[in-house]
Amino acid sequence: MKRSEINNTIKHATAFFKHHGWALPPQPRWDVTDFGLADFLKCGLALVNLAEEEEYCEKLMYAQKNQVTPAHTHLKKKEDIICRTGVLIVQLWRNDPRQDSGSGVMQVKVNGQMRDLQSGDKLSLRSGERVTILPGIWHEFYPESDECIIGEVSTANDDINDNFFTDSRIGRFSEIDEDEPAILKLLSDK
User: Fold this and answer.
1) Residue 14 parent element (H or E)
2) CA 69 from centre of chain
3) What's the pTM?
4) Residue 4 in 3-state DSSP?
5) Residue 93 backbone dihedrals phi, psi, to 5 degrees
6) CA spacing 20 to 30 A to 117: which of 137, 141, 167, 188?
């Protein structure tokens, strides 16, 4: 990713958060990623860590229409993905989507109530709605609305060791082309 693209994304996401009444903490810890696929508008996400504790974490995320966070799972992390503003599509699988036949029912908590979903089903979450994703459930998400604020509340976060993607080309943090000075330090910056 180009640093200019990261800077522009941070500026745009910050303005969108502010417009929708989300105040960021002092010195927020940002991450902007294209997942190493070099097409941020197709596959990308901007994240702000609001809480980073040993037992839990909370994130606020920003994405534009059809900007995918690709299929992945966690072995340890349990998380609630919450649509804060807009409409968010979350697709869920029992197994790695490359090998999942789409058959099989799984129980998933949606808005606090257990629901039976077919593996591969897509949930449409409106503002305020949430899905609880247990370790081992594969998931990807993207906004159906023009823009979306996405919340995450989860058990402790380990981006390096507990993110498993279907696409082996994916890297959690992007390589950065320093085409202009950074407006702030990212989680991945040294």
Assistant:
1) helix 3-19
2) 6
3) 0.95
4) helix
5) -135, 150
6) 167
